[in-house]
Amino acid sequence: MARAAGEERVTWMDGWWAYAFIAIAGWLATDIWRWLGVLAGNRLRDDSEALNWVRAVATALVAAVIAKLILYPTGVLAQSPLWLRLGSVVIGAIVFFAARQKPAAGIATAIAALAAGLWWGGFDDLKH
Length: 128
Prior knowledge:
Blueprint: H1 16-41, H2 49-71, H3 82-98, H4 103-120
Helix pairs in contact: 3-4
């Protein structure tokens, strides 16, 4: 790429402090909560109401994200039909339960079903 006269080339080393700031700020913002969670979690019993509540909230958040991706997708996923997105999740759920509730099996199957449906359905224009 041609540069205009007098324009200097900028490398990532010129702005290293920005990357360091992002890394440190990201670490500080999240790591302290992880450590507090470890400290608090060590004092909870596995069958406590507090831990059951945390599990329920975490499960609800994951379900909400999945529902949003299925019903209100963005980007390339928005170009796929609703029936394909729903069908992929159903197939993934069936495999999840058939494989003794192994998340990797269900997720991989749902992704493979979505990819196969897009390929079989001729959604080649998704590449553009």
